[in-house]
Amino acid sequence: MSSWLGPLLLVTALVLVVGGAEVFFEALLETAGRFRLSPFVLTLLVSGFELENLAAGLAANLKGLGQAAAGTFLGGTTFLALAVPGVAALIAPIEARLPLPVLLWSAAAPLPLLGLGSDGDLSRIDGAILLGWFAVAMSGLAWSGRRLLGVPPTRPRRFPVVRMLAGLALLSGAGELLGEGLHRVVSRFDVSEALLGNTAVAATVEAEEIARVAVPAKRGRGDVAIGNVLGTIVHFAAFNAGVIALVRPIRLGHASRVLHLPVAAGSAVLLASLVAWRRRLGPSEAVLLIGLYALYVIAAIRY
Asked: 237: buried, middle or exposed (CB in 10 Å: 19+, 13-18, 0-12)?
């Protein structure tokens, strides 16, 4: 029975993830319409906050696993910028006509982390700087995307905020279940701490993000789909990294400095550039993004 538990958890979690994404997206649009807010901005602020990723990073760092902790926000950023929009775009093309300032803020979000971590240390002072940068970058993103308004729902239902939070809670719980299932599947493999944190842990914790992007993309809301990715990247590269370093400084290993850190920053720049150039993520862009992520995983394994 134990050999089947991992796959069973995966299937159950995937069903819950899709259901949670549907509930969250519908309620988010209704909440934005009721309070006359931009769904894009609301997505940045609400969906971007990934408590499970932050908790995983804090737990790993407090146990002395600094490389795995760094992987939650470095490998997580790479997974978000490449694998998530890539897989989601295969499910449903993403029409992403976003203002240029939004994309510029998104591309710049991981750059302070790149600069501060290049010496191999993320100190408490670095953590405080990253938290300050998070406030600046998130404000810039929200201000730049404030005119991306949504269409009010034709048949609004009651308690949209409650349903939005319930959908978010369902997504988070399903994400935990998905992570546990994937962990059970890959736990038999002997991998390094840095590799585990930047690939397996990052992917398992954030796998449900694919549904958060694919569902609004199928409904014709590419701004909300990409907003999920952009907001979470800013949270990972600034807020999560800042909080984790503030609680306990992180010493970045050689692999983190020369591979995972620059790839995380470069992947965010690449996604923003691709959206600015193509204004649409379709099958060809999906293959490109997934292919690049596969190359990153291969490089991480071989490093």
From this structure: buried
Kindly provide the residue ranges of all beta strands, DSSP E only, lying in 96-212, ordered along the sequence. 121-122
Rounded CA separation 171/184 (Å): 20
Write out pLDDT tens, residues 196-220: 555 655 565 556 677 778 877 887 8
Decide: pTM greater than 0.70. yes
Amino acid in position 57: G
User: Strand, coil or helix: what is 298?
Assistant: helix
Domain 40-147+192-302 CATH (choose: 3.10.180.10, 3.10.105.10, 1.10.10.10, 1.20.1420.30): 1.20.1420.30
Cα distance between residue 97 and residue 214, in whole Å = 16
CA nearest neighbour of 256 among 74, 102, 90: 74
Indicate the DSSP class of residue 151. Answer: P
Six token digits for residue 206: 């954030």
Residue-level pLDDT at 62: 76
Q: State the amino acid at position 142 in one-letter form.
A: A
SS3 121: strand
pLDDT for 18:
47
Instruction: Using 50 as the pLDDT threshold, list the residues of the chain that sit under it.
Output: 1, 10, 14, 17-18, 21, 25, 150-154, 178, 182, 185-186, 193
DSSP bridge partners of 94: 281
Residue 297, CA distances (Å) to 83, 161, 287 in order: 11, 38, 15
